[in-house]
Amino acid sequence: MSCFRCTKKSTKESKNNNTNINGNKPNHQEVNSNGNVKKELGVKKEEASKDDQLSLDAKEWNIKEEVSKDGKTNGKRAQTFTFDELAAATGNFRSDCFLGEGGFGKVYKGHLEKINQVVAIKQLDRNGCQGIREFVVEVLTLSLADHLNLVKLIGFCAEGDQRLLVYEYMPLGSLENHLHDLPPSRKALDWNTRMKIAAGAARGLEYLHEKMQPPVIYRDLKCSNILLGEGYHPKLSDFGLAKVGPSGDKTHVSTRVMGTYGYCAPDYAMTGQLTFKSDVYSFGVVLLELITGRKAIDNTKPVKEQNLVAWARPLFRDRKRFSQMVDPLLQGQYPVRGLYQALAIAAMCVQEQPNMRPVITDIVTALNYLASQKYDPQIHPVQSSRRGSSSPIGRRDDDIRQIGGNGPERD
Ligand SMILES: Nc1ncnc2c1ncn2[C@@H]1O[C@H](COP(=O)(O)OP(=O)(O)OP(=O)(O)O)[C@@H](O)[C@H]1O
Ligand SMILES: [Mg+2]
């Protein structure tokens, strides 16, 4: 177990997750398993074509085997673009096209003449902490994937030492932008939208775990990686950390611990043994953020409340306090049964023992049901946020049982 991935946050977003698993500032250099700093990104042979450059990168980083064992891409290979085409699309990376910045580099909005499409272009920061390895894994994973809840990779540019990714443009930005540190002009997400986002994100994860061949562990599920389209349609993005899941009778893959503090499953953080249940834990954290409006890690809160899961665990045991967990920005506009069910799912996902966490398919079933139960504040009573039993919760025991046996502990 060694370094944690750099988690430089979008400059348009909060900076609170900028720590590694030990609570330290992230190491901006990647270190291999021998503890050696990886070599600088070399300028490749000028004569290499863009496609060849991707293959060279993959070979150099020994990646093809990991992500795309047989090299097949469902015949859907991402297009290549020249650097000049991408520069033209963004007015030479003009500041008013800037959308945000993460560990990989800056993201710009642009219009690509060649395909007449608005796109988001992510440019690898050569001084940044993520690099060519994540670029190649992202291209190979997304070339294999095709699902309504995964962001589409339109193409890439690999020219000299430039590496850029071209995605479909997601007009509403990231979930993080809609959940935390809202500007006064932005309305808080309502309950129905939150459940729709949770169900869609779960379907995206189910596709990676259950439908992809080979199955993939995402390793980077968090609010800033859930992008929102029209109508708040959610799509997972950023596959640079993805790993092919264990095969045969293996239960895990052993890797360096990478991810984002606050979302990383404790078992994976301790042992470096990555399983599909590591993603399920991260999903539980995102679901808790959706329900509570709190951040996975918030250093501005009192110590006991800084880690969302640690704050939530004792509350899961006391149903009288469930209503205290809900995001105050919902102003009491949520269904009590729905809240119980959503909390029960979150509680199961963030259990310490990975084998106690549900598989993603069961989470999808539960959340599809929850998202289909539309809440209408005109018809349903508005809840008090302070008292636990002010509302019609006569069948609350059934509510917990309905989604499975391992719900929050009850008194
Ligand atoms: N396809 C896209 N469409 C619209 N906006 C996007 C798109 N991709 C990224 N963005 C914007 O750019 C910001 C930065 O994204 P990026 O994925 O580089 O970093 P991050 O997710 O914030 O951090 P990290 O590097 O830890 O994943 C996002 O928060 C989002 O606002
Ligand atoms: Mg991201």
From TrEMBL:
Domain of life: Eukaryota
Subcellular location: Cell membrane
Gene Ontology MF terms in the entry: ATP binding; protein serine/threonine kinase activity
Biased amino acid composition, Low complexity: 16-26, 384-393
Residues annotated as binding ATP: K122
Cited CDD domains: STKc_IRAK
GO cellular component: plasma membrane; pollen tube tip
Region (Disordered): 1-38, 378-411
InterPro entries: Kinase-like_dom_sf, Prot_kinase_dom, Protein_kinase_ATP_BS, Ser-Thr/Tyr_kinase_cat_dom, Ser/Thr_kinase_AS
Gene3D superfamilies recorded: Phosphorylase Kinase, domain 1, Transferase(Phosphotransferase) domain 1
A Pfam family matched in the record: PK_Tyr_Ser-Thr
Keyword Cell membrane: yes
GO biological processes: pollen tube guidance
Membrane topology: Lipid-anchor
PANTHER family documented for this protein: OS07G0668900 PROTEIN (PTHR47985), SERINE_THREONINE-PROTEIN KINASE PBL5-RELATED (PTHR47985:SF41)
Similarity remark: Belongs to the protein kinase superfamily. Ser/Thr protein kinase family.
Identification of the protein by name: Probable serine/threonine-protein kinase PBL5
Organism: Prunus avium (Cherry)
